[in-house]
Every structure is written in structure tokens, then in C-alpha cells.
Design a protein that fits this description.
The complex is a heterodimer of chains A (161) and B (352). With 161 residues, chain A is an all-alpha fold. Chain A contains 8 helices and no strands. Chain A has helices at residues 3-25, 28-44, 54-72, 74-90, 96-106, 109-121, 125-132, 136-155. In chain A, helix 6 (109-121) crosses helix 8 (136-155). Residues 82-92 of chain A have low confidence and may be disordered. The two termini of chain B are 104 Å apart. Chain B has 352 residues and is mostly helical. The radius of gyration of chain B is 57 Å and the shape is elongated. Mean pLDDT of chain B is 68; it is low at 174-238, 244-253 and 255-280. Chain B contains 13 helices and 3 strands, in the order αααααααααααααβββ. In chain B, a hairpin with a 4-residue loop joins strand 2 and strand 3. Chain B has helices at residues 9-18, 26-35, 37-48, 75-85, 90-102, 104-115, 137-185, 190-196, 214-218, 234-249, 266-276, 285-294, 304-318; strands at residues 323-327, 333-339, 344-348. A 3-stranded antiparallel sheet of chain B has the order 1-2-3, with helices on one face. The chains are: A mainly alpha (161), B mainly alpha (352). Chain A binds chain B through residues 2-3, 6-7, 10-11, 14-19, 22, 32, 35-36, 39, 43, 96-97, 100, 104, 115-116, 118-120, 137, 140-141, 143-148, 150-151, 154-155, 160-161, and chain B through 69-73, 77-78, 80-81, 84-85, 108-109, 112-113, 115-122, 124-129, 132-136, 139.
Chain lengths: 161, 352
């Protein structure tokens, strides 16, 4: 791809990648850094990357960097995942979006990532498996489990039912 | 070689039972059994329990341990998610829709599944997208080249304006001085000519007083001539134009012994040139250089040093002595210096 293609990719995909990463790690500064790293890597390899596959390349890079970041502070996330559910259920929510945001953060990182790729970017199971290096069956399982978890989570809140 | 005895016989017994007892030890082994009938009986007992049968026991409900995509998900949940993801076959899809249409509880459950569909928030945008943009190497080069070029053009423009103004300031008093002298004496003595042309070392036509026409004397000719063909020679032209006024007004007198050898003033040369050849209004830098080299001092040969000196003199004249050079006792150029308001430097060329 040319530098012009690269700049087009910035305009087209920077927001999408940023949203994807931000939903995963809920830290704007780190999300910003990951997006920058992803585009930096793309620029370094821009001559070898096919312009038609630039979006996949960016999301794949961002996904793996996000996973790396999450693994680094796995302990912290582990605590959050196990403490937040009870707090969440005692709160009153104003809309579904707020509840979903809460619920998404409770998903295991793999499930959350594949679900975001599926819903935010509309990737197929095969594409997600290529992006995440998971098998297609694993991707499918993660998506099913994530949806059921979200449904059960919001189903327990009387205010939404 | 170790021999079988009552302390190590177990090893020999196991080898015998497994069929691994070496042939050369069999005789010793049989002798040992003959001499130890109690151990012979023990060997017979052990050999009957040598191989255990695995039996026919099987694990029941093996299917409960199997894992697949639907593990932990009820059939309805699976159908609902599959419908959302578009994974259901056409017939299954119809069946599922019938189910949720006929069953209120299922419909309610399915509504919850519909809410799990995530929608990206378009208000969340990457804040500094411009910083991610890149320029190609050629563009960067062009960018910097154009920057440098713009800077040079600006400097040249400033220099040209500054130089033009300083020339105007210099030329005005010369004319003012010249006017009263012409009125009083109707001639131009050598001293006055030297005042008008302070840089002129020798005046070729100084001995011949110039006669001035009264009408021409009163004409205040200070404006720049309209026809300037070469802008690069502005400074030189302006000097020549000043002088050009005088010779035209002076009654032509034959020039005597024109010799420019060793002259450094372009002005005098220009005047001589004008008097010699009326059609040439002024000299180009190339012409000036050629003349300076050609009219060398007697006995001095044309050399690269001479050409360089002449070139530096020409540049010095054009730049109003902002560019100067120094020579060593041998006459070689030892240093070149530039001194302007914006920039000043000197370049030593040879040791003195």
C-alpha cells in the first residue's frame, strides 16, 4: 500500500480501532497508545500490507496489543471481574446501553473481543478467527457464551424487563 | 559376573518370568532352584499372578463429558443466538420464529437477546487523527526544498530592496553637487569629478574640461531609465546610469589615452565605454570582467588569479563593497569576506 492508502486508512479506521480498544480496556490513554502503536506498525510494514486488508491488519494488531496489555495487569482485571457483578446488580440503570457497558466489562477478554469485532465491525467467524488466531469453533463458542451471559445479566435487572 | 543367591534372587525371578534371563545364566538359575525348594515354590506362586486382566468395566454417561459449542447453553438460547447471528437454516429459522410467536415467555427471552446486540458509539472518535498521517519521502523533500527556496527568495528580495535604497541615497548628493559647479564654471574640473566619483582612481578625460549645455544642465535627471533589460545587473546599471547623465550632457571631447589597466572602478570603465561607443549604454558583468582581464597592466599575463581578482572586483562593485577580498604580499587572494546586515563571514584561502 502507498502512503496515500495509509493516510486513507487513518481517516477510515482510526475511530473504529479506537472504539474497539477502548471498549476492551476502558482506559483512554492506553487505548490511544495502542491505536498509535497499531498504526506505527502498519506504517513500518505498509509496503508489504495489501491495501484491501488494511482494516484486518489494524484490528488484528490492536487486538493482540490489547491482549498483551490485559495480560500484564491480569490480577487487577481478575479482581474487577469478580467484584463488579454484585455492585452492578444493586444499582439502578437508566438504559440498556449503560447496563450492557457494565456487562461487557464482566466478560472474559477473549469473549469480549470477539463479540466487539462481531458487532462493531461485522466480521464473520472466519475473519475473527484470522484476526485473533483462535479457531473458528472457538470464536463461535465465545460469541454464544458472551451473548447468553449478557442476556442473563440484563435479564436479572427488573428495571429493564 | 554376579551369581544368583538368596539375597538377589528376585531380579532373576522377574527376568525369568519376563523371558529376559540370559541363556548362560539358566543353568545356575536351575541349580539355585534345586538347592532352594522353598524359593522354587515361591516362583511357582508368583508366576500365576504375573499378568492382570483389565476386565470389562466401562464408564457410563460418557456423553456428559463431551464439549461442544452448545455446552452450558439451553436449546432455546442456542436457537436464539443462532437466529441473531444468522446461523440458522431456513427451516430452523421458521420453526424458531413460530416458537417465539406462540410462547410469550420465549418472546420475552428473545427480546433480551435482541438487546445484547452491541452498537458502536459514533461519538467516540480518535482525538488526534492528523498526527497519524504520514508524508512520503518525496513530499518531505519537496516541502523542505520549497521552504529553503522561499527563504532564499525572501533574503534576495530584502537584499535587492535594501541595495536599491542605499544606491538612491548615494546618488542623490552627487547630482546636487554637480549642478552648481556646472552653473558657475560651465566646466567639470578634475577635482569635482573626483567628488562625484569617489571610487574613481584615475579619470581618463580629466584633463579635458567638459562643456555643459545650459539646457541640459537644468534637467534634473534622477529617474531610472525605463529600459533595463537585465534585472540581475541592477546595481551596476544604476551606477552607470548616474554617469550616463553626465557624458551625454558634456560636449563630446575625444578621449585621450584610454587605459583601464589596474582600474577597479566599474563606473569609470562605464564612462569610457560610453564615450568610446555610444551605442553601448552599459556593460554586462561578463563584459566588465573581459575588459578588466584584457586591459591588464603591462607585463602582467592573463592568469586564473587575474580572472578571479577581476571577478571579485566586479562582485565587490555590484554589492557596494559588501564582499571584499584581501591579498597577500605576493598578490594572491588570502581571504574573502562578506559583510551585510543579515549575514557576515570571512573565508581564509591561503596563509599570509
Amino acid at each position: 500500500m502507498t502512503s496515500e492508502d495509509y493516510n486513507n486508512a487513518v481517516d477510515l479506521h482510526a475511530d473504529g480501532v479506537f472504539r474497539f480498544v477502548l471498549k476492551n480496556i476502558r482506559d483512554e490513554d492506553r487505548a490511544h497508545d495502542i491505536v498509535q502503536d497499531s498504526f506505527e506498525k502498519l506504517w513500518i510494514h505498509h509496503r508489504e500490507v495489501d491495501a484491501a486488508k488494511v482494516k484486518s491488519y489494524l484490528f488484528s494488531t490492536a487486538y493482540h496489543r490489547t491482549i498483551d496489555v490485559l495480560r500484564k495487569d491480569q490480577k487487577q482485571h481478575f479482581l474487577e471481574e469478580h467484584q463488579l457483578p454484585d455492585d452492578g446488580h444493586t444499582q439502578q440503570y437508566s438504559d440498556v446501553e449503560e447496563v450492557l457497558n457494565q456487562a461487557i466489562q464482566l466478560l472474559p477478554s477473549d469473549q469480549r473481543s470477539v463479540l466487539l469485532l462481531r458487532d462493531f465491525e461485522g466480521y464473520s467467524y472466519k475473519e475473527i478467527s484470522e484476526l485473533t488466531a483462535l479457531s473458528e469453533a472457538q470464536v463461535k463458542v465465545y460469541i454464544y457464551r458472551a451473548r447468553v451471559f449478557l442476556k442473563n445479566y440484563i435479564g436479572k435487572l427488573d428495571v429493564l424487563v | 559376573m554376579m551369581k544368583i543367591n538368596r539375597k538377589n534372587y528376585e531380579i532373576y525371578f522377574l527376568d525369568y518370568l519376563d523371558g529376559n534371563l540370559p541363556g548362560d545364566q539358566i543353568d545356575d538359575f536351575l541349580d539355585f532352584l534345586k538347592n532352594n525348594p522353598d524359593l522354587h515354590e515361591e516362583l511357582k506362586a508368583v508366576s500365576s499372578f504375573n499378568k492382570l486382566s483389565p476386565g470389562g468395566a466401562v464408564f457410563q454417561k460418557k456423553e456428559t463429558l463431551l464439549k461442544d459449542g452448545r455446552s452450558g447453553v439451553s436449546d432455546f438460547d442456542y436457537q436464539a443466538v443462532a437466529y441473531l447471528e444468522g446461523d440458522l437454516e431456513e427451516d430452523d429459522e421458521k420453526a424458531f420464529l413460530e416458537t417465539i410467536t406462540n410462547d410469550k415467555a420465549s418472546e420475552k427471552e428473545f427480546d433480551l437477546f435482541l438487546k445484547t446486540k452491541l452498537v458502536p458509539n459514533d461519538r467516540v472518535v480518535f482525538p488526534n487523527k492528523v498526527a497519524l498521517h504520514r508524508k512520503s519521502g518525496v513530499k518531505v523533500l519537496m516541502y523542505w526544498t520549497s521552504r529553503v527556496a522561499a527563504g532564499l527568495i525572501l533574503l534576495f528580495g530584502l537584499w535587492a530592496v535594501w541595495n536599491h535604497q542605499s544606491n538612491n541615497v548615494e546618488s542623490q548628493p552627487n547630482i546636487v553637487q554637480k549642478q552648481p559647479q556646472n552653473d558657475d564654471n560651465q566646466t567639470t574640473p578634475q577635482k569635482n569629478r573626483e567628488i562625484i566619483q569617489p571610487k574613481t582612481e584615475k579619470l581618463v578625460d580629466a584633463q579635458t574640461p567638459d562643456k555643459l549645455s545650459p539646457v541640459q544642465q537644468k534637467q534634473p535627471v534622477l529617474s531610472t531609465p525605463a529600459a533595463i533589460e537585465k534585472p540581475g545587473l541592477v546595481a551596476l546599471k544604476e551606477r552607470l546610469e548616474e554617469r550616463e547623465v553626465a557624458p551625454r550632457k558634456i560636449v563630446p571631447v575625444p578621449v585621450q589615452s584610454v587605459s583601464l589597466a589596474g582600474e577597479s572602478s566599474d563606473v569609470q570603465f562605464a564612462m569610457n565605454k560610453t564615450s568610446e561607443k555610444q551605442t553601448d549604454k552599459y556593460l554586462t558583468v561578463n563584459g566588465l570582467l573581459a575588459e578588466k582581464v584584457w586591459h591588464q597592466k603591462q607585463g602582467e599575463s592573463v592568469s586564473l588569479s587575474r580572472v578571479l581578482t577581476a571577478g571579485l572586483e566586479a562582485v565587490s562593485s555590484v554589492s557596494n563593497d559588501r564582499l571584499k577580498y584581501e591579498t597577500n604580499p605576493k598578490g594572491k587572494i588570502s581571504e574573502i569576506s562578506l559583510n551585510t546586515r543579515l549575514l557576515a563571514f570571512s573565508i581564509p584561502l591561503k596563509k599570509r
